[in-house]
């Protein structure tokens, strides 16, 4: 049976290389992993090797793989009604919208469903522009908002460069990031105050009457898991209120428990005007994203047509998966578990690694959302890989992790530990132990 599996995996690989065009890649420099099986926090490759998934794939399998309640919900929905046009009423969609609204901040009670995070941000910006009648959108450097035209332009990472179209009314500013402060700050309080003063100046210089929205990841994810200092998001909320600007919180990665709360805006008690979500809403078991809409923007489109839509908006299979995911998260205390995992295991465990490994410049995060900022020199904070690229040292760490059965997420000079939220304490410790060994091996071989 094993050899049949192996033959199947080899055939899948060969066909992939011949016919599948992969995201964000030079097609012939790829060696993608065949995944034949996945369960909970583990995946198996074509040769039968098991890996602990500390990346939750692309930070979306918040319940891990093959959660039986979610699998069953998809099967049951498929048996009843696989698909239906968005203009109809469907019980899976209605119930998903209701359940999501029980967890979103006060007043964000109307859901516009999309296929994922990028289109959720596109629609949120469109709503804010139509609501305010203003053209511009402000977003921060060191951010990721998606791969479609406008979403990649509001993004503040190198993936924007190839498609840059500054004419779209997109303006970038610096957000708080004390370790690499753009404001020469030395404390979180200073960083918060100066980042808000900088944003206020950008608003003044751009012209408040031209700005429709400020779009911010509540905790920037792929860009480095920079938990904002207390008061920063509240300060942004105040600036928005003062100038009639819509606050769009991108909770695509930070939402649905990842940061140890249902939504990361709760860390600063902030209610945005619009909030985008995807990924964890249904653990990625079927493509789903959305915009949670507050009452004032909803009212704009009460009598006036909203000019936007998608064939699969509120797809029944994806919505049934969302309903089951949210029920499982509630019933199994998943958000509370993620919070505890961060506070008791991942946070202290990663800090202990920092005490041992010179390459770790900073450990930051919360919940099941952690980053190691790796540096070649702690004094100068020289990154272990340049901005926008990898390095032999980073590749060596990742290879050493993989050999030992761990798949962390890597971005430039950072390793992110973002396992499924229901990862057990033992599994989390297993991952930390492998990371410890991998850092030692890579450092030793770097000489
Ligand atoms: N926003 C954030 C914060 C994300 O992390 C991502 C994806 O990683 C997106 C938006 C884009 O989501 P999608 O890839 O589903 O379009």
Automatic annotation (TrEMBL):
Superkingdom of origin: Bacteria
One Pfam assignment: Aminotran_3
Database matches in SUPFAM superfamilies: PLP-dependent transferases (SSF53383)
Family annotation (CDD domains): OAT_like (cd00610)
Key words, A-Z: Aminotransferase, Pyridoxal phosphate, Transferase
An MF annotation (GO) of this entry: pyridoxal phosphate binding
One cellular-component annotation, GO: cytosol
InterPro entries: Aminotrans_3, Aminotrans_3_PPA_site, PyrdxlP-dep_Trfase, PyrdxlP-dep_Trfase_major, PyrdxlP-dep_Trfase_small
Annotated coiled-coil segments of the chain: none
Family label: Belongs to the class-III pyridoxal-phosphate-dependent aminotransferase family.
Protein name in the entry: Aspartate aminotransferase family protein
Organism of provenance: Leekyejoonella antrihumi
């Amino acid at each position: 049976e094993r050899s049949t599996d192996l033959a199947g995996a080899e055939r899948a690989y060969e066909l992939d290389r011949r016919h599948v065009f992969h995201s964000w890649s030079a097609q012939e420099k790829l060696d993608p992993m065949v995944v034949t099986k996945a369960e909970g926090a583990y995946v198996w490759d074509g040769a039968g090797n098991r890996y602990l998934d500390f990346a939750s794939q692309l930070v979306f399998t918040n319940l891990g793989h093959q959660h039986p309640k979610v699998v069953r919900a998809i099967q049951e929905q498929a048996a009843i009604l696989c698909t239906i046009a968005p203009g109809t009423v469907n019980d899976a969609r209605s119930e998903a919208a209701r359940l999501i609204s029980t967890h979103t901040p006060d007043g964000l009670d109307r859901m516009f469903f999309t296929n994922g995070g990028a289109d959720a941000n596109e629609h949120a910006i469109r709503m804010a522009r139509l609501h305010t009648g203003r053209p511009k959108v402000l977003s921060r450097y060191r951010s990721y908002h998606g791969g479609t035209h406008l979403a990649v332009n509001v993004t503040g990472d190198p993936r924007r460069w190839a498609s840059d179209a500054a004419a779209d009314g997109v303006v970038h500013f610096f957000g708080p990031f004390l370790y690499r402060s753009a404001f020469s700050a030395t404390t979180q309080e200073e960083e918060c105050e100066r980042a808000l003063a900088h944003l206020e100046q950008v608003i003044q210089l751009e012209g408040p009457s031209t700005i429709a929205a400020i779009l911010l990841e509540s905790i920037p994810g792929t860009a480095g898991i920079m938990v904002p200092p207390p008061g920063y998001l509240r300060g942004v909320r105040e600036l928005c209120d003062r100038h009639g600007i819509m606050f769009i919180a991108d909770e695509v990665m930070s939402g649905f428990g990842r940061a140890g709360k249902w939504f990361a805006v709760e860390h600063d008690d902030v209610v945005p005007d619009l909030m985008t979500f995807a990924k964890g809403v249904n653990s990625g078991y079927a493509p789903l994203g959305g915009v949670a809409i507050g009452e004032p923007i909803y009212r704009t489109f009460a009598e006036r047509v909203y000019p936007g839509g998608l064939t699969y908006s509120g797809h029944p299979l994806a919505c049934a998966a969302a309903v089951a995911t949210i029920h499982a998260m509630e019933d199994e205390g998943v958000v509370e578990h993620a919070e505890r995992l961060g506070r008791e295991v991942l946070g202290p465990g990663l800090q202990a690694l920092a005490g041992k490994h010179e390459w770790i410049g900073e450990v930051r995060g919360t919940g099941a959302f952690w980053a190691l900022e790796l540096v070649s020199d702690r004094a100068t904070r020289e990154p272990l890989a340049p901005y926008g690229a990898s390095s032999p040292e980073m590749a060596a760490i990742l290879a050493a992790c993989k050999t030992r059965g761990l798949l962390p997420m890597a971005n430039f000079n950072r390793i992110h530990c973002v396992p499924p939220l229901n990862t057990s304490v033992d599994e989390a410790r297993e991952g930390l132990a492998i990371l410890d060994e991998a850092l030692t091996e890579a450092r030793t071989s770097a000489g």
